[in-house]
């Protein structure tokens, strides 16, 4: 039972739906759904085409395919992943993910604030990459739900209206 002054169980255990969150947004929109211990981000995205080669100098990146198929080309070889499969890209390894099926949805785990270092001639904005933090309190979603409307629905509505900061 929650303390009256603290968050409710619904706020602490708020669930999210990948399909609903990504549905109204263009591919390459990444949502940081939540942070673990304020250090690690759980990110979701819809992959489209091939994202340019890049690397992350500050940490590893873990990829898990929720739906569809994905190939990640690296400087040491390639790996193809289907729904239910994942791979780790070590810190500093140049890689380029490519969707092998329309509608491929991925879950990515990385350190919070991971930066992308592109090869010359590319940058995140020109590639259509957007990263958005969903509203949270610490490791939990903020208590923005009311009545029968789930927190995730209200978060998506607020994003569409522009009240969730990118």
Q: How does this model look, in words?
A:
The chain is mainly beta. It has one domain: Jelly Rolls, CATH 2.60.120. It contains 3 helices and 13 strands. The chain has helices at 9-12, 18-22, 151-161, and strands at 29-36, 40-47, 54-55, 61-67, 69-74, 77-82, 86-89, 95-99, 104-111, 117-118, 130-133, 136-137, 140-141. The strands form 4 sheets. A 6-stranded mixed beta sheet has the order 7-4-9-2-1-11. A 3-stranded antiparallel beta sheet has the order 6-5-8, with no helix packed on it. The longest helix has 11 residues, at 151-161. The chain is globular, with a radius of gyration of 17 Å. The chain starts with 8 loop residues before the first helix and ends in a 5-residue tail after the last helix.
